Amino acid sequence: MSELHQFPTLPTQPFRLDVPLHELLQQPAHKxxxxxxxxxxxxxxxxFPQHPELYHELxxxxxxxxxxxxxxxxRHWPPSKILKTMxxxxxxxxxxxxxxxxxxxxxxxxxxxWKCNLDCHYCWSYDNRVKGMTEDTAKRAIDWxxxxxCRVLAPTGGEPLLRPDFVHKVVAYAAKKDFxxxxxxxxxxxRPEVTDKLADAGIATINFAVDAIKEKPGLxxxxxxxxxxxDYLVRRQYRHGYTxxxxxxxxxxxxxxxxxxxxIAHENGISITFHINEAPMMEQGHFKHLHQNDTYIxxxxxxxxxxxxxxxxxxxxxxxxMVDSIPRLENMKGFMRGVGEHWGCRAGQNWLIIxxxxxxxxxxxxxxxxxxWGTVGEQKFDVAQLSExxxxxxxxxxxxxxxxxxxxxxxxxxxxxxxxQAMHGFQGVTGSFE
Length: 434
Description:
38% of the residues lie in helices and 10% in strands. By secondary structure, it is of the alpha/beta class. Helix 6 runs parallel beside helix 7 (227-240). The two termini are 22 Å apart.
């Protein structure tokens, strides 16, 4: 039986961690220092277009591919794309199990920005005072990660497309080194010309964050502002071979919107992932929406959120594509009531984040921790420290990425899943891992 922890859904204090753990992470003996300066490096300027033959208006082949996905739920993956995904995920996974040492990353999140063009009231990672990542740091990070098993790189923020030319360089440089590149964006700046460059550079998947159909107070990530960008992106994915999915945060004010967004995803043959709204795990001095925030789920909201989760579970059983498994959606009911559990977090071992200044941290919620986990090229992750820390932070965290890495870090599950996919010619890799 998992250990249970209680914490308030509506925040009454500036952080959710136990005070001793919070103090240890914020006031350690040694604080992280940016990488030592060396000869300044720059990222190569990508050639565009590399594939001019792919730049034309929608044609019969695009329409047929889209219709096939909507009719059968499947899309065709040529051998080159299957091999690309294997190089990004499968080969690194087996390397991480075979190679000596506990630090064997599979995926790294590259925080190119901490700035954002929107102010979502639930998001504490919005701080426009933080300087964006330099080309030198980005290049050193990718070159360093190439020496590890890691072959999934996720530029994120903030909003990484505040500097689209910078992200274009990052994607192109990483893709040429066989990284499977995953971009997180709110879609406002994902104009057709930006999509064209990212697709040409070799983007693998796009995490398209949207929370409402029409903008609401505190929820500016609205589909009404990005519908044209979405349409351009979704209809050209078959030609270029990338994927995309919706990323939606469940709040007390967007219950019906979540249903409509899930329906839009289903009607367009893409997947969707959900988060349950949660207050900051650590104190965020810049966060101005902590105590006056209408997006936080209150006790009286539990029944309507339960009904929404039951609706999503029913739709997934009908075949709708969702990243979160049915047990994971069920667990959201307990988490919003303050019931956490230990789920086997692998942060700092098989995944990590690289901050804008090149320092490292194990995961998103600890972005602003003062603890020294090292820098690009000189990681200092210690399993004993991570294990002790996770006794306090893990039950307070509902990281979808962290949970999926932990769940999948089982040889038996991976082999079973690979066997199932092999039987279908690796043509059915959609939806949740289960």
